Amino acid sequence: MSRLLIDRLVQPHLLDLQPYATARHEFGGRAEVFLDANENPFPENAYNRYPDPLQVTLRNKLAEIKNLRLEQVFTGQGSDEAIDLLCRLVGRPGKDEVLVCQPTYGVYAISAAIQHLRVKEIPLTAAFQPDVTAILKHSGPQSKLLFLCSPNNPTANLIESDRLLALLNAFPGLVVVDEAYIDFAGPGASVLPLLAQYPKLVVLQTLSKAWGQAGLRLGMAFGHPRIVELMQRIKAPYNLATPSQQLALQALQSEDVFTEQTQLLVHERERLAKALNSLPEVLEVFPSAANFLLVRFEDAKSTYNKLLENGIIVRDRSRVAQLENCLRITVGTPQENQRLLATLQSAP
Length: 348
Description:
By secondary structure, this protein is an alpha/beta fold. The protein is built from 13 helices and 11 strands.
């Protein structure tokens, strides 16, 4: 029944698509002589062979960490690849629509627009929560995707569970929850356990933030096996390079480093929030469950320029609706955070 539910959302021509398959897709044993892919046979740089097209070792490790099955795990070039594939999978160009809750991560709307999908922007509430009534009011049979970000970028807050459950139970399409910053939100914050109950839920995560591997461009999508199967079908054959897979596996073996750094950043987040709140030019520091702070200043533009003149780059969000005079400030090392505060406290 779950498979049927998903298939009804997918572009019909993709259900019968035969993906590009290499001999290594089809071979399940242990090979010793590789004469199938027209590779250079001389391993002078260790990268003469194509990477594992299915990333089985990496996906198995992620499944173990996330307490999921291999067939529930998709890996790609950052979360952006998964976002793009989901738009292509279910969205009929010129016919279907994607809902996004602004302000949020801009790639959702861009990926939808590239696929020529109609983008409906539903403003978040004053508390930066999804407006369930408005979302459902503006959704219909052509509403194939709803993107939610939790903790949300740039507002840093988690989605309230009752709102998410209401949307999972009523939204007609796939509900995609982007959890890029979830490791900073504390235990029990992830919605991964809901996958067992909601086949139309897709959860995105990444190694770019808490795991400190932004340069690898490695993201994950977790979902129903049918969704993962179809994403594997339409992805590029070799979408993750061998070094990316190897380095990601190395990072995932270092959970002690991940835990230590995450705890330090959460501690620094609270210290930085307290210090910023004491500055006269700061009007509000919004609560954060991420590794950044959304801060409203009396004059965000002049503060932004002052920081820039002192070699400090933050993100100016003041031109976004509901975020007037707001800057988004990433939590850095203790030394970087101290330099930020010293610059803000200095005379103009």
